[in-house]
Amino acid sequence: MKRFRANETALKSDARRIFQAALEAADAGNALRRHVRVTRNFLHVGAEKLDLQLFERVVVVVVGKAAVAMAAALEEILGPRIGRKVVVTKHGHAGPSRHVIEAGHPVPDEAGLGAARELDALLRELNARDLLLVGVSGGASALLPAPAGGVSLAAKQKTTNLLLRAGANIRQLNAVRKHLSYLKGGQLAALAYPATVVGLLLSDVVGDSLDVIGSGPTAPDSSTFRDAMNVLREFELVERVPQPVRRRLELGVAGKIAETPKADNPIFRNVHNVIIGSGRLALDAAALEARRLGYRPLILASSIEGETREVAAVHAQILRETVAWGNPLRPPACILSAGETTVTLKGHGKGGRNQEFALAAAFGIAGLPGVALLSGGTDGTDGPTDAAGAVADGSTIARAAALGFDAQQSLAQNDSYPFFDALGDLIRTGPTGTNVMDIHVLLAAKTEPRA
To answer: Is the peptide bond before 108 cis (omega within 30 degrees of 0)?
Structure first.
């Protein structure tokens, strides 16, 4: 195999530009404007056309990390037609916007509980002459905690923490959340009945499942109490979750608590759900930017799941294969993927799944010239940090060692943040106003053989 020269700094800069193009394409406000418009007295939402003259009031509820951008777009489209509005987003994501409730994510807090109570009171006021627009984006599950009877916020917090540390994926986590809540899993739509409900969903989940996005507050729930209990069993958490949580799920399995609304429930006759954006759109834009920068782009997949370290190792090997054999395509190459991996926490460090992805992948490309990779969260926050992710190249492990970092120890302790911070390779975008899963960018340069 020939040895090549390449400018890794330029490669990492290109990776950031490609990631930025993905963010701009996934902008939640623009996504909503593409799907929602008003002509005369009609509201067009996707294929639906609603006569606004049939409604006495338009109520807007927007929850998630992209809530502020979505709410602004709805205000622009509907203007004074909006009668009431509730907007809930993650702490630090409201920016200068007023009348926005900021709450805890990924673990719910008292602010979110207060928002849920305010929303509950509003929903119970609605009637058949009301139109309710519900904007949902990633993070909505945690941001709007509504503990069902007998379950406290503290019990939900502990259960959420246990599931996150165990490495539960979003479907597993939300199956449990929905059965500990009175708003999730279609129950928001049930409380709003007989109002007409339009769900505007910005998908951050693999497969764009309506009942998984934000725990599906306006969608029929395909999961059951038994599914939720099976998740606890899979991660050996049945005896570790708070007793009220275990008791509620057991009663549900026994049929002593009503299930979440299913697809045959008549309440959904008045509900219209539309997916306004997803990770695929972001990938398409990233591929266009990569081509503009001179790379051959390939979208590998838009539904990547699995343990972060394992998925990262596979991506690193794909990058090596690209350099060595021009497979799956010849350099200059840009290989893209999107999805949502999970981290099983074993250490007590600081980081997030994208930073861990970059660190784990750095081992696989160590010493390889002419390559770079980036992993970033489209919401601008990765785990409990101010970074969206990180970028790495073939010299990452060696450069960190020169600064006194043991990369193996950093990975073992889930301590990727200080590792990449010292290298200057964290990605800091700030809150982006969108959330459509994570984006992975792999670059292999066109290089010249050394003399």
So the answer is: no
Tokens 């697809």 map to which residue?
263
CA-CA distance, 230 to 58, in Å (whole number)? 40
- Cα-Cα-Cα-Cα dihedral sign, residues 141, 144, 149, 155: positive
Calculate the alpha carbon distances from 171 to 167, 177, 227, 302 in Å.
12, 10, 10, 16
Nearest-10 crossing angle of helices 28-35, 67-78: 40
**Which pTM value belongs to this model?**
0.87
In whole angstroms, what is the distance from residue 360 CA to residue 138 CA?
25
In angstroms, the CA 392 to CA 11 distance is 10
Going by the DSSP 8-state scheme, the letter that residue 431 receives in this structure is -
Residues 3-52 have pLDDT tens digits of: 334 588 999 999 999 999 999 999 999 999 999 999 999 999 988 999 99
| pLDDT digits 0-9 by tens, 388-435 | 999 999 999 999 999 999 999 999 999 999 999 999 999 999 999 898
Element (H, E) at 85: strand 82-90
Residue 322 gets the label, from left (phi > 0), alpha (psi -120 to 50) or beta, of alpha
Instruction: Quickly list H helices, 109-200.
Output: 110-123, 140-143, 153-166, 170-178, 187-192
